[in-house]
Structures are given as structure tokens and as C-alpha cells.
Design brief:
Order of helices and strands: HEHHEHH
Radius of gyration: 20 Å
Structural class: mainly alpha
Helix content: 55-70%
Distance between the termini: 66 Å
Largest sheet: 2 strands, antiparallel
Number of strands: 2
Strand content: under 5%
Length: 101
């Protein structure tokens, strides 16, 4: 269990899938990662992903994130929406102070 945690990052998965042609099936992802000498933990993470065709690396990462975090990814997108709304309000404040001059 000494290697536990070394392959669990999305960066590690993308590193071992670099150069793969998309669209690609899950089995293609596994085969490519093996050819890139991926650690067992990386292969295990890919193995856990949904057995389907992936259109691009972002699609792979989306599925990878879903497998790892479950509900957490929904919370992250909610946070991004909140930031966008806050940014819009800040812009309104600037135009309001300009009208004051």
C-alpha cells in the first residue's frame, strides 16, 4: 500500500493518456495508459470509469471527477455560479460611482 495516492490525481491520469486519439472507448484509454507505463493506481482509476466512448480529454476528466467526488462536483459548479453573480454586481458598482461625478 506504499503507492496509494500517487496515481489518484487528474494530472496523473492525463499524463498517461497524453497523445491518445479521441473519440476513445474506456478499453482504449486503459490500453494507452498501459503503453505509457501507468502505475496500477492510474489503471484502477480508469477501470472504475463508465464503460463508454469519450469524446476528448475533458470528457475523460469529467467522468474521472464523477467517480472520485460524486456530489462534490455539483457543489463546485454552484460555487462558480455564485462567483459570476458577484462579479456582475461589482461591475455595476463602478458604473454607479462614475455617474456620481
Amino acid at each position: 500500500m506504499a503507492t496509494r495516492g500517487t496515481g489518484h490525481s487528474p494530472a496523473n491520469v492525463t499524463k498517461h493518456l497524453k497523445g491518445i486519439d479521441f473519440p476513445a472507448e474506456k478499453q482504449d484509454l486503459l490500453k494507452h495508459a498501459q503503453q505509457m507505463k501507468a502505475e496500477k493506481v492510474v489503471l484502477d482509476e480508469i477501470q472504475k470509469m463508465e464503460d463508454r466512448e469519450y469524446g476528448n480529454m475533458a470528457d475523460v476528466m469529467k467522468s474521472f471527477g464523477k467517480e472520485r467526488s460524486g456530489e462534490e462536483s455539483g457543489a463546485a459548479s454552484q460555487s462558480a455560479k455564485t462567483k459570476q453573480q458577484t462579479g456582475g454586481q461589482a461591475g455595476q458598482g463602478k458604473s454607479h460611482s462614475r455617474a456620481h461625478h
